[in-house]
Amino acid sequence: MIMLEGAKATTETVDALRTGAAAMKAMQKATNIDDVDKTMDEINEQTENMKQIQEALSTPIGAAADFDEDELEAELEELEGAELEEQLLQPATTAPAAPVQVPAGRQPARPVPQRRTAEEDELAALQAEMAL
């Protein structure tokens, strides 16, 4: 019984392979190597034509055609060098500002009272009268 099932599976496999081979043969009749080579040659030719068109379009015209690329590069390098030299000659940082406060060890323990002027005395008296 097992042998019979194995033989049937083998026969089905061989039939499937024959069907696949026939399908591949039919597809290859529709497309042969000469057609593929011809198509690839046409694609390469069109690609080359596009490269030539793009090259022609990228060629400078008018005033832009008069510029020399090497000369422009040299001028740019010269300008960048001058700018770098100017930056290097500038001081890197400014000096820190002097401290505004006196160090804690030198301050008096309690603030020295300031004397009030006559005007301040009058103002204090008026505020006291008004109960402010």
UniProtKB/TrEMBL annotation:
Record's keyword terms, sorted: Coiled coil
Listed name of the protein: Uncharacterized protein
The UniProt record lists the keyword Ligase: no
InterPro entries: Snf7_fam
Top-level taxon of origin: Eukaryota
Organism: Manihot esculenta (Cassava)
Start and end residues of each stretch annotated as Disordered: 91-120
Biased composition (Low complexity): 91-104
Signal peptide boundaries: none
Lineage of the organism: Eukaryota, Viridiplantae, Streptophyta, Embryophyta, Tracheophyta
Coiled coil: 36-89
GO biological process: vacuolar transport
